[in-house]
């Protein structure tokens, strides 16, 4: 039930407070939190006080607010992302032992890529992806490969939401061509998009319904991609993760264990 002048419910306002924290803003004073959450300062003080008492938020020595351990504890008790991470970790470690750059696991969340695990080696190239961080799906190899293997209605809904977005957002026909090419190849390779010095390579991880539920990817130096070796290794690992999720060979499809999503067409 809405119970504020703006029409926000209590749950919505609490979620806005919690969502205001990110990798660039792990701690902040109440005034900054109120501004980032779009809430009155008085409301922020009141809700933050209650959340601190519940250990969902905690205060630093100078009074700044940050996410509390209680929130982390609750999130990790029964999380689909945690289950996926546990299944994927042995396969990610195998990839990382060979790549020795960055190996990462991600899922789609709304119109963004949410990274749920990343393994890195000392001296690795720069990587904008952070655990629990997000990137727009259209600039991420992980995001593009998951969308390429999503059902057609999911793809079209994404395009509808961004119809008319100004450049550099790609035009719908360009994205459809990219998704079709990714399905033909079974992987997505995006050189120099997020960072001009790196290349992202990703393959889909399939769920029991034959659509991509996650992506397994690497970030390597531009010009040192070695896709002929990297992509098959990623595909093998992704098949193992898919099996761990209960996906059958039939659901995963014939091409390198990858499926053509229901309702899709390589001619898109």
Automatic annotation (TrEMBL):
According to the lineage, what is the superkingdom? Answer: Bacteria
Keywords (alphabetical) are:
DNA-binding, Transcription, Transcription regulation
Q: Give the span(s) annotated as Disordered.
A: 248-268
The IclR-ED domain, residue ranges = 70-247
The keyword Transcription is assigned to this record? yes
* InterPro entries for the chain: GAF-like_dom_sf, HTH_MetabolicPath_Reg, Tscrpt_reg_IclR_C, Tscrpt_reg_IclR_N, WH-like_DNA-bd_sf, WH_DNA-bd_sf
- What is the protein name for this chain? IclR family transcriptional regulator
